[in-house]
Amino acid sequence: MSTEEPSRASVEAQTGSAGPGPIEPTVEAEAAQHPSPADAPPPRRSIWTRIDRPFRLGFLVTLGGLAAILVALALTSLSTVLVYVAFALFAALGLNPAVRLLERRGLSRGLSVAIVIVALVTAVGLVLVMIVPVVVEQIASFVKSVPKVVDDFTHTDLYALLERQFGDQIGSLLSDGQKLLTDGKTLTALGGGALKVGTSIAAGISAFVIVFVLTLYFVVGLPAIITSMLRLVPARKRSQTRSIVMQITESVGGYVQGMVILAFANSMVALLLYVLLGLPFPPLMAVVAFLVTLIPLVGPLLFLAIGTVTALLADPLHALIFGVVYLIYIQIEAYVLTPRVMNRTLSVPGLLVVIGALVGGTLLGLLGALVAVPATASLLIILNQIFIPRQDART
Fold first, then answer.
1. pLDDT of 306 over the 70 cut
2. CA 230, 233, 235, 239 torsion: positive or negative?
């Protein structure tokens, strides 16, 4: 037998194997292949976070603070632009359901957008042509009729009652109000001067044009924008994220359309009541009602006060009738119309609506009040689709 065979046998005896096969790794080899966490070298801290180098740490903290201040200043400077973008996006989401309806009828996206925009421009143009001259004329008539309205009010029983309660203060208050409404110099001074008033009008027109153009771009490119944003999400979550985004866009669009429908209903009720009761300036009050009641929650109550006070100067009895009837309509709208219009797209508890509107109005004013309800609905969708299922899956 050769010297090679004993060596092979001795190796097999040492490894405990009698035939060919894989050799079992030794303890040292196993430790080398799978080192324990205790054997791992300690992590090396960055030189920027070491306490024993206070200069570098302070420099880093100072740079972070300066960067935060610069970002805050930039956002403050861009606040007007951000508001324009938010209004345009809000309007685009409001028009998107109409565009999708035409797409489901077989029309292309571009043709659907064109039809919706032309219909919108036509409707707005007709309203402006029919309403604006009448409103301007009635504003002028209102200013001219203020002395007569105030004089007629001073001969009513209500004025006599107020005079007995408050003395001469009610008379001076009416005189100051009459001067404020009829004196052009006072109105100009309140506006900051003729130049500032003209600048404000020009800024308002330019803002409207900017928002309109941005709305067109958002409506046309909304699917592409959503697709581009979804590419930032991991591929395994894109399907769920797309479903959530589509639910949010549908909810916001339905909310915008619902608010416009309810505001139009409010304006028609105000117009009808003013015409039937013979109160002055029905078209003007209808326009005011439409604009004011676009504000959620407080809009109808605010117009109730405006409409009642305006009617009070003409006829206290008719003002009382208007206030009672419009208050009844507010209750019908809250418990009948609003659920039918809004619950198809939004399902938000009333308490959250109130809290959201208060928070949004406090932070962003009118824009915050407008977007508070759809923002709350969007958060609820995210919670119901992502957070709650994760919590339910935990044991």
1. yes
2. negative
- Cα separation of 334 and 338, whole Å? 5
Residue carrying structure tokens 């013979």: 278
Supply 38's token pair. Answer: 């205790």
The answer to whether the CB of 191 falls within 8 A of the CB of 197 is yes
**Is residue 164 classed exposed, middle or buried when 0-12, 13-18 and 19+ CB atoms within 10 A define those classes?**
exposed
Residue 242 CB contacts under 8 Å (≥ 6 apart), including other chains: 226, 230
Single out the residue of 115, 79, 386, 92 nearest to residue 224, CA to CA: 92
Q: What integer best gives the mean pLDDT of the chain?
A: 75
> Model confidence over 88-126: pLDDT tens digits?
888 888 888 888 888 888 888 888 888 988 888 888 788
**Nearest 5°: phi and psi at 277?**
-85, -5
**How far is it, in rounded angstroms, from Cα 39 to Cα 48?**
26
The model scores a pTM over 0.70: no
Measured distance CA(329)–CA(323) in Å, rounded: 10
Q: Which residue has the higher pLDDT, 351 or 317?
A: 317
Tokens of 9: 């046998």
Buried b (16+ CB within 10 A) or exposed e, 285-317: bbbbbbebbbbbbebbeebbeebbebbbbbbee
The widest CA-to-CA distance across the chain, in whole angstroms, is 140
Tokens standing for residue 251:
């909810």
Q: Residues 368, 372, 374, 378: is their CA dihedral positive or negative? A: positive
Helices (H), the chain: 4-15, 27-33, 54-77, 79-104, 109-154, 157-166, 169-182, 184-190, 194-230, 238-276, 282-292, 298-314, 316-332, 338-342, 350-382, 388-393
Residues belonging to the chain: 395
**End-to-end Cα, the chain, rounded Å:** 68
